[in-house]
Amino acid sequence: MKTIGVGIIGSGKIALANHLPGLALCPEARVVALCDANPKTLEEASRTTGVSRTYSDYHQLLRDENVNAVIIATPNYLHAPIAISACEAGKHVLCEKPIAMNLAEARQMLAAAEKAGVRHMTAFTYRFGPAIRYMAHQVHDGAIGKPYHFRANRFQDWDLRDLGWRQIKKLAATGELGDMLSHRIDYAHLMVGQIKRLVAHLKKFVEMRGQSRSELDDWVSMICDFENDATGVLESTKLATGRGEGPQSMDSCEVNGDAGTLVYYSDKPFEVLVGKKGGKTLETVKLPREFLTWPGSPRDPFASDPVIGFRYDQDVEFIRAIVENRPCRPSFAEGVQAQAVMDAALLSESEHRWVELSEM
């Protein structure tokens, strides 16, 4: 089988920590080119990966005939222009979330990918989490009956540290909304279905991070109704003092139905809590083996930290979709759906009202 040459555009921490280990699981794929506008970052990535073909301009990488697919891990404002150019160059695209600065850009990305006939994927990493997958399966299988409520919380303590481009509006568009709540929006869609309407509140508590002014929200919350009449409450913050940050901080999801309840905590990725109708306590249920890795992934779920390892499966899905000439899961379409909710949240905040997703 022909090797799939992968170019990484944006060669910083996320690319090296999340995507390289995932690509290493794919015998059909090989990283052949790196791109970054920061010479120091590019040099470090080249040294770490052993990839000598490097570019400071993504247009040059997209002209490289050895590159068949690209992973975009840049600041948000570059996602749409890079992705659209990549599609026009016939490259398959895996783009970090949120895929765009706004819904119009996201729709343009999806249209460009579909027109070019390339594989396209949004890096909604948590979809690959074993417990998230199991909960979605159980909900869809009717295990909890008719869904009543969906809840998701992401509480971290980032204190006052500098967030770089993530705190600048023209580079990121949103703060905590796009950074962390976008994931929860996506797996709300995965588990319960499409959001119908919402009311949201975003707030910036910290004016200065490091030596730079912060322009964006560090807390966000929304209440929503789903198309199936279930309700949702989603909240995310970088200022939950004492919670820490990363995989060990508070990250939970709960779905209540008329026949049962399912609860997930990210620090226990191989189990869920299950409540039965008439019960008084929740029971810990270990996940079946088939949910510990993504279908087709050769990854040993016990060989690495389980709160990290599932992230690598998204790259396996990307490469398998290319090899099998089928749509990626999740695609740009799911990125568009999440972006519509994010744009609706911004409209709700600015106009202080409920927003129907049909308005978007």
Provide tags for this entry.
six-stranded parallel beta sheet, 25% strand, globular, alpha/beta, Dihydrodipicolinate Reductase, domain 2, Rossmann fold, 360 residues, nine-stranded mixed beta sheet, 2 domains
Describe the overall structure.
With 360 residues, this protein is an alpha/beta fold. It has two domains: 4-125, NAD(P)-binding Rossmann-like Domain (Rossmann fold); 126-288 and 338-351, Dihydrodipicolinate Reductase, domain 2 (2-Layer Sandwich). Helices cover 33% and strands 25% of the residues. The chain is built from eleven helices and 17 strands. It has helices spanning 13-23, 39-49, 58-62, 79-88, 103-116, 130-140, 169-172, 176-191, 306-309, 313-324, 332-351; strands spanning 4-9, 29-35, 54-55, 69-72, 92-96, 120-123, 147-155, 195-203, 208-209, 212-213, 219-226, 231-237, 250-257, 260-265, 271-276, 283-286, 355-356. The strands form three sheets. A nine-stranded mixed beta sheet has the order 16-15-14-13-7-12-11-8-17. Strand 4, helix 4 (79-88) and strand 5 (92-96) form a beta-alpha-beta unit. Helix 4 (79-88) runs parallel beside helix 5, helix 5 runs antiparallel to helix 11 (332-351) and helix 8 crosses helix 11 (332-351). The radius of gyration is 20 Å and the shape is globular. The mean pLDDT is 97.
